[in-house]
Amino acid sequence: xxxxxxxxxxxxxxxxxxxxxxxxxxxxxxxxxxxxxxxxxxxxxxxxxxxxxxxxxxxxxxxxxxxxxxxxxxxxxxxxxxxxxxxxxxxxxxxxxxxxxxxxxxxxxxxxxxxxxxxxxxxxxxxxxxxxxxxxxxxxxxxxxxxxxxxxxxxxxxxxxxxxxxxxxxxxxxxxxxxxxxxxxxxxxxxxxxxxxxxxxxxxxxxxxxxxxxxxxxxxxxxxxxxxxxxxxxxxxxxxxxxxxxxxxxxxxxxxxxxxxxxxxxxxxxxxxxxxxxxxxxxxxxxxxxxxxxxxxxxxxxxxxxxxxxxxxxxxxxxxxxxxxxxxxxxxxxxxxxxx
Amino acid sequence: xxxxxxxxxxxxxxxxxxxxxxxxxxxxxxxxxxxxxxxxxxxxxxxxxxxxxxxxxxxxxxxxxxxxxxxxxxxxxxxxxxxxxxxxxxxxxxxxxxxxxxxxxxxxxxxxxxxxxxxxxxxxxxxxxxxxxxxxxxxxxxxxxxxxxxxxxxxxxxxxxxxxxxxxxxxxxxxxxxxxxxxxxxxxxxxxxxxxxxxxxxxxxxxxxxxxxxxxxxxxxxxxxxxxxxxxxxxxxxxxxxxxxxxxxxxxxxxxxxxxxxxxxxxxxxxxxxxxxxxxxxxxxxxxxxxxxxxxxxxxxxxxxxxxxxxxxxxxxxxxxxxxxxxxxxxxxxxxxxxx
DNA sequence: CAAGAAAGCCAAAGCGCTTTGGAAGACTCT
DNA sequence: AGAGTCTTCCAAAGCGCTTTGGCTTTCTTG
Lengths: 340, 340
Description:
Number of helices of chain A: 12
Pfam families (chains A, B): LacI (PF00356), Peripla_BP_1 (PF00532)
Order of helices and strands of chain A: HHHHEHEHEHEEHEHEHEHEEHEE
CATH superfamily of the largest domain in chain A: Response regulator
Keywords (chains A, B): DNA-binding, Transcription, Transcription regulation
Strand content of chain A: 15-25%
GO molecular function (chains A, B): DNA-binding transcription factor activity; transcription cis-regulatory region binding
Domain HTH lacI-type (chains A, B): 1-55
Radius of gyration of chain A: 25 Å
CATH class of the largest domain in chain A: Alpha Beta
Oligomer: homodimer
Largest sheet of chain A: 6 strands, parallel
Distance between the termini of chain A: 79 Å
Protein name (chains A, B): Transcriptional regulator
CATH architecture of the largest domain in chain A: 3-Layer(aba) Sandwich
Structural class of chain A: alpha/beta
Number of domains of chain A: 3
């Protein structure tokens, strides 16, 4: 059932039927009702390919997915996707993932824009002066950055959490509890979020005349194993930290294992605070010692990004507003006063 | 730069240019070279929307993503996606995720097929007599099922692992080590994979004249917390098992925590084998006691599914062949002879 | 009551590609 | 040399929708 047939059986022109369906004003309300009714009754759905060709609108949002044998997709991604999908569903949007060589995403961005394959894109895990952001900005497709980049001579729309503030608060608490030697087990420090988190820790320490020891900060891919190794190294060295701030719950698993391996305890010997993106399948309150966390739902972020993308597509959102969400500091059993 | 312009500057018709580009035989090789060359030089890329409208082919594969506030996407999904994306990238395929209400995916399947939004779809986590499989089968779109359904009067193409065999082997080993009371901490038993795994355990037990105690099998959503709870319950009851087989590494984290909480040890008091889908961020060899696993890379499965989908789209694969991959049983420190 | 405005509808021209049905020229064969 | 066969290319017809520009009617208004 296509427009032509529908128009024919209503004894109307395609023009009128199309306009009636798309809510244009120059059609009689009575006629519109007739058309709408017939369309519904016959299950008429406009062919999206044809509509795309005519309008250029696709009803899809895009994401360039870095892939490769040695590239791992962040497990946080599913949660982000849950949020995004939840919003997208209620607005008839689909998400298209365009896999790209992790080292050459630019080509793919150019392709999906040139081909008009999607109405908007989002960018995640940005780095300072991220080329993707600059590219997408010049290509002129609506976009939202999830996270932040830095060092551009232009502004751009983003949704991010207050990573610096979160880690500042966490560190401040530890300092107040008497800790003097903090360590930071961070994610890849080429990414902005990791830079911000480190900045937060340093700022808190500096406020008390302390500093982050050179060997007390490490930047690794956020796996359980790396959390373990980092902790082992930290605690076996001479000036072992008495408190650790950690960028992910998964790494925190490794931290806990390392501490136990060394015959130490949390929080007796080491206090621990980790960042929690809120996974349904791994909860900080269920760690052997309930874990204190800086908490921010990445699922909500996904929904928000989708919402803003939809708004930008339909022209409801303009400008380059960046928004920064506060992060909760949730204190549980894994922190205590510094050992004597 | 579109076909018309390109044809015009080559002083050829659109027909010829189109054919030259698409490898049709009725064009002079010399001409083809000229066309190809000019196309490359001017960076001509056929407009996909137009091509879609004309051919119906989209160059996209589809996945209906169940969403909802209370629906969690399986974290395995990112790994599957890695494999899928890796293959798709090298074949210029994109993946479109169509979010759907988890309780009404049918509408979405119908939509994406009716709209010709994708060339093929895959279905994951199927259940016995899964309605999605039946639906997609009648809709006539190429598809592959990742996993297996059961109880249809038709065959369908799938790629699955030998869940029953894997859990049979794992159980057999435990029995040979003298264990008599096994327990199974399984995933949602409405899904086929869970049914097959239980079947494997039962078959191994039956071969030695044993059975799976009624309270020794539980079926839960695969979270750390549920692993913990199930284990706690199992071990605190009267006829506590001496060995546990567990359907996921994440649940195994909870198992380990529960065992420790009760002052017991692995493998001294309880032997443990879990299924490992191979995550880069959580490895069984890094558990406090290295974990024995039944191992099968879900990433490879993703790549294989993409490969088969591509083959079916281009008509290279026909028929309804199902393939079942063997699973490795990897023995590490978490198993030992039954306690006396 | 004639003239101008507004409302309601339509025919046809795209959007950019593929594909059908020829046609012209070159080549083969008897 | 004439008939038949390839080879190589082309014009034009879709694919199904939106949108432009215009044409009737009907409704105002002085």
